[in-house]
Amino acid sequence: MDRFLFPRWVNRLVPLAGAGFVAFAIYGGVVFVFATAPETISIGHAPVQPVPFSHRIHAGQLKMDCRYCHNTVDKAAQAAVPPTATCGNCHSPAGGDGTTKYAAVLTNSPNLEPVHQSIASGESIDWQRVHDLPDFVYFDHSAHVTRGVSCVSCHGRIDTMDVVKQEKTLSMAFCLDCHRNPDSHIRPLDEVTNLAWEAPGSSDDQNAAALLGAEIRKANGINPSTNCSTCHR
After folding, report:
1. For residue range 154-199, what is the model confidence (pLDDT) as tens digits?
2. Cys bridge to 56: 39, 60, 70, 185, which one at CB 3.0-4.6 A?
C-alpha cells in the first residue's frame, strides 16, 4: 500500500496557519485588555478633568436638567459632551472693558481659565471620558431614556458627585440582568432626569418601584431584548 503524502502546496499553509494563530492571539489580547480596562469595568474610576466641574452643584444644588449639557441623550445613541459654548452661557469671560457677553458667574475663577481659553481659541476642552464601553459594544442612550430608564440606573447619583466616578460595572452581566429584570429601572418619563426621584410608597414597600415599572412597561409595550445582536452588531 502506497504511503499517503500531502501535496507540496500544503507546506505553504503552515506559516499562514502560524501567522493566523499569532494574529488571533494578539486580537484576543487586545479585546481582553480593553474589555477589562478601568474605564470599562472598574468601579470608582474617576479621572482628573481639566476643569473641576461639580455635578453636585449644577445637577444637585442648582437642579439643572441633564439635557441642558448632554443635549442628545434622548435623541441619539451618544449622550454628547457639551461644547464650551454651553459653559460660556453662564461662565463667559470678561472682555477688555470688563463686560461679559452672557452671564458672568465666577468670571475671575482660576478654575474656569481653561473654559475662557477654549472660548477665545475655539479649541475644545480635553475632557476625560469616565464611562467607556468597548468598541464592539453598541449602546443607545435614547432607546433607554425615552422608555423611562433614568441616568441613575447606569451612572448612579451623579447629582451628588463633585467628581464623577464610575459607580456600576457596566459589564455584559450587568446589562443582561437589567434587560431580564427591567421593572425596577423603569419610571415615568417626566422623572427620568430627576435623579432623586423615588417611587410613591417605596419607603414602606421595597417592591414599589418594580410594581410601578411593571405597569409602565406593560402599558408602553417595553420588552428589552436579550439577543446578542442587540449590543454586538
Report:
1. 999 999 999 999 999 998 999 999 999 999 999 999 999 999 999 9
2. 60
Alpha carbon distance 43, 190 (integer Å)? 29
- 32 lies in some domain: no
In this structure, the answer to whether residues 107 and 205 fall within a common structural domain is no
Based on the domain organization, do 121 and 71 belong to the same domain? no
Decide: residue 107, CB within 10 A, 0-12 exposed, 13-18 middle, 19+ buried.
middle
| The residue type at 205 | D
- Give residue 209's domain range: 54-81+132-233
In the structure grid, which three cell numbers stand for residue 193, read together? Answer: 432626569
* Residue pLDDT, tens place only, 128-140: 999 988 889 999 9
Identify the sign of the CA torsion 70, 71, 73, 77: negative
DSSP state of 22: H
Beta bridge partners of residue 149, listed in sequence order: 186
Give the predicted TM-score (pTM) of the model: 0.77
- Angstrom CA distances, 209 to 4, 71, 147, 150, 192, stand at 71, 27, 15, 12, 13
Length of the chain: 233
Residue for cell digits 402599558?
219
How many C-beta neighbours within 10 Å does residue 83 have?
14
CA 175/CA 169 separation, integer angstroms: 9
CB 118 within 8 A of CB 124: yes
Q: Is residue 42 part of a domain?
A: no
Tell me, rounded to whole angstroms, the distance of Cα 195 from its chain centroid. Answer: 16
